[in-house]
Amino acid sequence: MRIAMIGTGYVGLVSGACFSDFGHDVVCVDKDARKIELLHQNVMPIYEPGLAELVSSNVKAGRLSFTTDLVEGVKGADAVFIAVGTPSRRGDGHADLSYVFAAAEEIAGAVEGPTVIVTKSTVPVGTGDEVERIIARVAPDKGIKVVSNPEFLREGAAIEDFKRPDRVVVGSEDEAASDVLRGIYRPLSLNQSAPVMFTGRRTAELIKYAANAFLAVKITFINEIADLCEAVGADVQEVSRGIGMDNRIGRKFLNAGPGYGGSCFPKDTLALMKTADDHESPLRIVEATVQVNDSRKRAMGRKVIKAMGGDVRGKTVAILGLTFKPNTDDMRDAPSIAVIQTLQDAGAVVKAYDPEGVEQASKMLSDVEFSKNPYAAAEGADALVIVTEWDEFRALDLGRMKGLLNRPLLVDLRNIYPSDEVRSAGFELVGIGKGR
Ligand code: UGA
């Protein structure tokens, strides 16, 4: 199959590289000439484990290429995927679809004959219909069909998620277009039993938002249970284990923490709420989730202050982990930002270490001293705070840390350290939802 991928952001680049690895012939198109130039040199615009290797091997095999020329890129394509950004529109939280519509218009003008335009970007319900209207205006006679194929990959585990998905969702109103998608995903159904679910286009669009909102609710639920655990003397990790063993609930996404962040949950929950409002069908549970999660991030800063005795003026706090989650350099809506600002507002001095996030973090945070490693961050600090659970924080030399810190206090906002290990190393430990 011949595929064009418009947009080389997270979703576009990972999907393009993985499709080419399936054996398809893929051209990735982006307007950003600098990005394309870097990709020609095998420099990835994002940090994602395994991506550079995957791109380079498929480029070498002649199945993957990059261009800024959309007309050239879509030539002869069986399917053209739109994977451009859908950021929150300033002011009202609606998804900004201007990039999607502009891409649709350009593609419709450029393709020469029948093709399938597939929206992979996260787009609100009804966007496929709007894309169809654009095509009817620009190229009514080319036989272009519009399909929705939302993406469920996670940053940091993107390749694995793409190649071994729980499911693939395709929303299509046309049998011939469905067949094209069947062909594209055939390698998945051949190698394993990843179900490809065919449904209506609007339903597929909603599945994407409903999935992200449900996961955001699940995380927020366990975060509030964690607070209750602290109040009543229970242990949230045990509660998660106890409820997660019920298959109807499931074990995943029950890790209590400082609140969810990233480029998806915050943006998609807002966009879903807007859609719900527009249709006078409010989603109160999602509204509550968004509010609870927003206030939680600063509350985590206050939790650190409380653990340090209530007054942090002139005290130093060492933050380990800045990105919204491990294995990414993404700082969007990262809880670390609110935690650090709350500490700074209260007069604390902040030192921080992150394996990949410092470049982005330094653009978003001021007056933070970025350290070269966890030990340099801890030197002279009055508390060590784990905000993001990078693997390299799981095996810190606690004896060495103790010698470097002013006060051996560990605030573990991800519960990665067992309390007996930390306490026997001579630390005071404050975790999340650890009422006992
Ligand atoms: C999320 C979804 O998991 C993907 O399925 C989806 O494709 C993607 O959004 C998207 O819409 O593009 P992502 O934002 O990369 O993926 O990251 P997640 O692993 O879902 O984590 C999101 C946030 O939830 C992080 O801040 C993480 O720390 C937090 N989280 C996650 C918890 O606090 N506890 C958990 O148990 C799990």
The major β-sheet equals: 6 strands, parallel
CATH fold call of the largest domain:
Rossmann fold
What is the end-to-end distance? 57 Å
The proportion of residues in beta strands is 5-15%
CATH structural class of the largest domain: Alpha Beta
Low-confidence stretches: none
Shape: elongated
If strands are numbered along the chain, what order do they take across the biggest sheet?
Answer: 3-2-1-4-5-6
Folded structure, characterized:
It holds the Pfam family UDPG_MGDP_dh. Substrate binds at residues 152-155, 208, 253-257, 261, 325. GO terms for molecular function: NAD binding; UDP-glucose 6-dehydrogenase activity. Keywords: NAD, Oxidoreductase. It comes from Sphingomonas turrisvirgatae. It is a single chain. The protein has helices spanning 10-21, 33-40, 51-60, 70-74, 98-110, 127-138, 158-163, 175-191, 201-232, 236-244, 265-278, 284-307, 335-345, 358-364, 374-378, 398-404, 419-424, and strands at residues 2-6, 25-29, 64-67, 79-82, 115-119, 144-148, 168-171, 196-199, 316-320, 349-353, 368-370, 383-386, 409-412, 428-430. The protein is built from 17 helices and 14 strands. The chain is α/β, with parallel strands linked by helices. It has 2 domains: 2-199, 3-Layer(aba) Sandwich (Rossmann fold), CATH 3.40.50.720; 235-436, Rossmann fold (3-Layer(aba) Sandwich), CATH 3.40.50. The longest helix has 32 residues, at 201-232. It starts with a strand and ends in a 6-residue tail after the last strand. It is 45% helix and 14% strand. α5 (98-110) runs parallel beside α6, α9 (201-232) crosses α11 and α9 packs parallel to α12 (284-307). The strands form 3 sheets. The protein has a 6-stranded parallel beta sheet, with helices on both faces. The radius of gyration is 24 Å and the shape is elongated. Bound molecules: uridine-5'-diphosphate-glucuronic acid. Residues 122, 151-155, 212, 215, 219, 253-255, 257, 260-262, 264-265, 268, 324-325 line the site of uridine-5'-diphosphate-glucuronic acid. Uridine-5'-diphosphate-glucuronic acid (UGA) binds at residues 122, 151-155, 212, 215, 219, 253-255, 257, 260-262, 264-265, 268, 324-325.
